[in-house]
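Entry: Ribonuclease H
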Amino acid sequence: MAKFYYAVRKGKTKGIYETWAKCEEQVRGYSGAEYKKFSTYEEAMNFINNGNEETEQFDEAKLKEKEAIAYVDGSFHINSWSYSYGVVFITQDGKETYSGREDNKDLAEMRNVSGEIKGAMVAMELAIEKGKDTLYLHFDYTGIEQWAKGNWKTNKNGTKAYKEFYDSIKSQLNVVFIKVKAHSGIKYNEEADKLAKEAMLS
């Protein structure tokens, strides 16, 4: 049986859904809904992003009570074989920032990507802890989404752990993955990058 991807560009919750029933929930009764069925994930993602990476700031003024926005980034230090992450987390209550430095060997083997993976996991955990049901997760490395959704093979311990973590929380949290263009001047993305770099120095 052929598999399809249902992309909702404008609806109750933007995202890619694997069944028509889930897609329909997001567009039924929504004025001006934009959605389309695709045979490949890449085409669906391209439709959502209008063929481009996000280059503008997400409008937090439109956030609902159960929604959160996160921008994540990471850094890696080869001499100490450690990585750091930065997270800018936004809800209706305002903005919070989180950062940290770790040296988990399984993640460290991912080098530059390790911190961004950890940041994504921290953001998802925060959303659940704060009772949110939707997280708009902004990142600049494509694998953050592709590994989580199983579109890329998880052939390293770090990516396997990340995929297992995502699978364990996806029933509690709808993560809308939004790729941003790195170093394009998006305020919160730049802030997450700065937080990660500062954590590496601490």
